[in-house]
Amino acid sequence: MRAIRRLATNRLAGAGAVAIVLIVFTAVFAPVIAPQDPIDLHVRERFAPPFSGEYILGTDEVGRDVLSRVIYGSRVSLMVAALAVSGATLVGGGIGVLSGYFGGWLDGILMRIVDVLFAIPTLMIALSVIGLFGRTMNAIIFALIVGYSPLFARVSYSATVAVREQPFVEASRALGASPWLILRQDVLPNIFPLVVVQMTTYIARAILAEASLGFLGLGVQPPTPTWGAMLSLSREYFYHSPTLPIWPGLAILIAVFSFNLFGDGLRDLLDPRAWQAGE
Amino acid sequence: MLRYTLHRLILMIPLLIGLAVLVFFYVNMLPGDPIAGALGPEATEEQIDYIRHELGLDRPILVRFVEWVRGVLRGDLGISFASRTKITPVLINRIPATLELALGGLVFAVGIGLPFGFIAGLKKNTKIDYLFSAAALGGLSMPHFWLGTLLLVFLGVKLKIMPTGGYVPFSEDPKQSITYLLMPAFTLGINLAPFIARMTRASVIETMQEPFVAFARAKGLREKTILVRYIIRHALCQVVVVLAMYAGHLLGGSLVVEELFLWPGMGRLFVGSVRGLDYFLLQACILIYAVLRLLLNLLADLLHAQLDPRIQLK
Amino acid sequence: MQPLLEVEDLRAHFFMRDAVVKAVDGVSFEIQPGEIVGLAGESGCGKTVTTQCILRVLPVPGRIVSGDIRLKRQSLLALSKEEMRQIRGRRISIVLQDALAALNPVIPTGEQVADVFRAHNTVTWKEAWKRAVDVMRSVGIPEPETRAKHFAHEFSGGMQQRTVIGAALACGPDLIVADEPTTALDVTIQMQILNLLKDAQQKLGSSVLYISHDLANIARICERVMIMYAGEIVEIASTHDLYHNPLHPYTQGLLACIPPLGGKPSYYLPAIPGRPPDPLSYPPGCRFGPRCAEAKEQCGFERPPLRSVGGGRYVRCLED
To answer: How many domains does chain B have?
Structure first.
């Protein structure tokens, strides 16, 4: 409760949160909100300009309603982002915490692997996974999990190591608590805020990544609408309908911006609040 | 300095080994049969086996690994599955284009990000700061290929001011080369600029709070002097250090930009290899990109050591 | 002889989000030309803020609300920003406690001394550099030609402080404000620094406002001492008078806290009971009252003024 009240006082995080709620709402209730079926073809009315009539944002090259497709596109983006980041947090975070806490040879090997993975650009990792596993949504989610895990591993690793050195952890150890208990009660609650902020930032990145993949044609395949693919296609049909590129990109921008805003606000909240007086 | 460099290079070796192992085994040990996939559903068993034997894919994996490493050390990255030509010359051919793009992107990123970051930091918490910070957040959140697409279609196709794709190497014709480079480099740079702006801003703010700035004021130095020599110099030091690391960021972004602008660089080669399931090419590209990234990080560290007088080199 | 510096009923408050901190609340004193005056008091009593007021470098939530500060009869508070800038470093300069923090880590030390010179004189780089090297030599930095090119972290603590003092002396100031310059240094180095300040007085004729909570060091170089408590000056006296015959109960308490050399070790080190008042809510009446062993009922609601008791001595106490 207190956390929610603090959220409300920070306007940035609040605005971001509101936006996120709206987006999630849109995604979840897409079938209800969208005026048309996103894969319905109205070929005779293709390339309809926006704000003209029945189709608020116009239609694409085969006559599908752009607005509906944008609305439905949010489903793919959000689902991929949410699942990918959750997965990366569990896998990467788990590795990082375990390595950080137990140290030893496990630490050495795992963190070396993480270091090596860091050398490869994330998008490349994702693309290669897709290349090898196919272009399904699952593959994309898996690809992003693999791509983002190293980062979560690093973050949780350094956070865990920092916490591990704290006196209260030593105290717990001295009292004879089992490592798992310490992890659960001392380590996790303390690295939690950091991890949450990272998660929000990475959801934003994941949305961008999914869009990039879609743009390259290596994302979720048609006819499922995805923002990236819509953007890519709009290039070809630009002459017929110059407004086509605007909407999917705008959607991506709004979604990513909201998450970033929220993440920033969250980070401000969780940071030392000593900067209160006299700012 | 030289010793430090050598030291770091030596440290890189286990990393490179790990990289090679990871890349190779990752690409080659996954389920699925690339050959069957590439040849299509009509291929017969014999055809598949024949090709497999020809490419040496039926030998034990460790043997293949050793051979591959041997080849890499010799400079031979293997043979492209799809085109049956040697990979190395093709790849090398493409490197200048990607480097040009990356450099151009860096120039834009720094050119835009640095001044914005400075001003935002110096005018902390004023309207300008908020405006710039909001713009930075917007820039971060925007898919750069969206901006690229919009630029491409409006400037390139509609208004026809800019070329819509193609490439001229710098060495051939600098002016033409830059014309083709402008939009792609800008698109790539916009990707990175907000990060640089934010970092610069933070660095400036932190520097301004340092006691030596207050002391400089107490010494009666002119504001301009304090600004330029004390604040900016110090903040710049911190920023330059991280720049080379962010250049690695650029390498990732270049993949999409190259596709968008049909830029003949390594990025397009890589994407092509993913599309065509050309595994040898895939692993070669990943290896090269990773090595480049590591080298850039090393450069960043060396730059840091050089610029910051506080670092003691062993 | 006109006083060099006059501080008259200075009040500086910090306006925080929900409270006002009265860091300096009615401080008045004078410093004569060529004299070394000490300002002593506990941490948080307002010593540093006073120096910030004199140089007009008070950080943002703070503001001088009333009072005046005059240098050679000219009000400093009335000066424009540019005029004040010219005073800083040239006629009034400052030496800080943490010398390493005061120096920019990415600029050679010599440049930082030369900067002061360049800020107040039109000279070329070369001349300023030469002058900086001379200054560094005069404060006792060995091999100044090479040392000046080094960076702050390459110096020892003592040399860093010498550099800072060098920067302070570069333009031959009338007043040097030294804010705990020796607190972070070894005892032997402390003596050297104190001697440097004394040199400045003798050779340059500068006055020194020496701020410290170390009464021993104050006794070593100061001719007069002022004791500060809770934003006010509570006693002013010559060094001799203060240490041999302290009048204000706080001063007496402070001096009693110094363990005597020789003599029997006692079980407990004497200390002044209680703590300094919260700057957000000073007690009515005498601010030292709650801790004073000789407090009377009056002290609880009547604020004592700083009154003269003859011979240049001032005490802020209702008692005689």
So the answer is: 1
**Could you tell me if residue B127 is inside a domain?**
yes
Rank B30-44, B66-80, C140-154 by mean pLDDT and report only the highest: C140-154
For residue A15, with 0-12 CB atoms within 10 Å meaning exposed, 13-18 middle and 19 or more buried, which class applies? middle
Mean pLDDT of A114-137: 80
Q: For chain C, how many structural domains are there in total?
A: 1
Q: Got the DSSP string for C204-241?
A: I--EEEEEES-HHHHHHH-SEEEEEETTEEEEEEEHHH
The per-residue pLDDT for A87 is 93
Beta-bridged to residue C210, according to DSSP, are C38, C178
pTM, full prediction:
0.78
Q: Which one of C16, C63, C280 would you mutate to disrupt binding with A, by most A Cβ within 10 Å of its Cβ? A: C16
Q: How many structural domains compose chain A? A: 1
Whether B143 sits inside 8 A of A208 (CB atoms) is: yes
Residue with tokens 């569990």: A90
Closest residue in C to B207 (Cα–Cα): C104
Query: Is pLDDT above 50 for C231?
Result: yes
Residue A128 CB contacts under 8 Å (≥ 6 apart), including other chains: A143, B26, B27, B274, B282, B286
Say if the Cβ atoms of B142 and A256 lie within 8 Å.
yes
CATH number for the domain spanning C53: value is 3.40.50.300
- A135 or C195: which carries more pLDDT confidence? C195
Q: Give domain status of residue A227, yes or no.
A: yes
Spatial separation of the C-alpha atoms in residues B128 and C90, rounded to whole Å = 35
Cβ–Cβ of B274/A128 closer than 8 Å? Answer: yes
| Chains near B (3 or more Cβ pairs under 8 Å) | A, C
| Residue C136 covered by a domain | no
- Which residues 143-202 in chain A show a CB within 8 A of chain B? none
Residues of chain C contacting B237 with CB distance shorter than 8 Å: 106
Q: How far is A115 from chain B (nearest CA, A)?
A: 8
Minimal CA separation from B239 to chain C, in Å: 14
Nearest-CA neighbor of C107 among A189, B216, B66?
B216
CB contact under 8 A, A277 and C15: no
pLDDT of C42-91, one tens digit each?
Answer: 877 888 888 888 888 888 888 888 889 998 888 888 888 888 888 888 88
Residue B56 in any domain: the answer is no
Structural domain range at position C186: 5-106+151-259+269-312
CATH number, residue A226? 1.10.3720.10
Here the CATH number for the domain that contains residue B231 is 1.10.3720.10
Q: Residue B143 is part of which domain span?
A: 96-265+297-307
* Helix, strand, or coil (residue C176): strand
Residues of C in contact with B313 (CB under 8 A): none
Is B166 in a helix, a strand, or coil? coil
Q: Is residue A15 part of a domain?
A: no
Q: Which residue of A has its CA nearest to B191?
A: A208
* Chain A residues closer than 8 Å to B143 by CB: 208, 211-212, 215, 228, 231, 249, 252-253, 256
**C-alpha span between C33 and C207 (Å, rounded):** 6
Mean pLDDT throughout B228-257? 78
What average pLDDT does range C303-309 have in this prediction?
Answer: 82
For A171, the domain range is: 27-271
Asked whether residue C220 is assigned to any structural domain, the reply reads yes
Residue B8 in any domain: the answer is no
C15 reaches A (C-beta below 8 A): yes
Query: What pLDDT, on the 0 to 100 scale, is given for residue B165?
Result: 65
